[in-house]
Amino acid sequence: MHRVDPDEPDSILDEGIMTFCDDIGIDAQDLVVLVIAWKMKAAVMCCFTRSEFVHGMQELGCDSAPALRAKIPEVRGYIAAPSAFKPFYLFCFGYSKEPGQKSLGKDVAMAMWELVLLPKFPKVADWCSFLQEHPSQGVTRDTWDLFYDFMVKVDGSYDAYD
């Protein structure tokens, strides 16, 4: 397995993931990292277990970091279609929340919305500004899921929403 921490031999943790990202030629803050985590069915942010890593590399059709590096443009395309993007977006909630928590912290949710949704839906910036100005505890699964549906429905303006 790639970049294993000696203290956690069955997992790649944050530093190992950063090195892995360097090896495959991407920034660790790139959206494609989440796509890779989705394909790995990773349960916890900044951690790939051995089984998740092996499964994900098989799912991606890669047997090495150089093979995945060559495939990054294709991997980016995995979420191009709305039918693929929504399951990816839904995955991001569970992946981003702290283990054992039922909701996402507001700051984490806003960072994820900006990374995942803002390129598709510019109105996400308005939502994040609103959240900055209004106190809230966190974002529930229902809010996360329905927010995507809302963004799709309003499609750049609020004219289609009643």
Automatic annotation (TrEMBL):
GO MF annotation list: cullin family protein binding; ubiquitin conjugating enzyme binding; ubiquitin-like protein binding
Among the GO biological process terms of this entry, one is: protein neddylation
Choose one Gene Ontology CC annotation of this protein and give it: ubiquitin ligase complex
The protein's UniProt keywords, in alphabetical order, are: Ubl conjugation pathway
**DCUN1 domain location:** 1-162
Role, per record: Neddylation of cullins play an essential role in the regulation of SCF-type complexes activity.
Q: Which PANTHER family match?
A: DCN1-LIKE PROTEIN 3, RP42 RELATED
**What is this protein's record name?**
Defective in cullin neddylation protein
Q: Which organism is it from?
A: Aphanomyces astaci (Crayfish plague agent)
Q: What is the lineage of its organism?
A: Eukaryota, Sar, Stramenopiles, Oomycota, Saprolegniomycetes
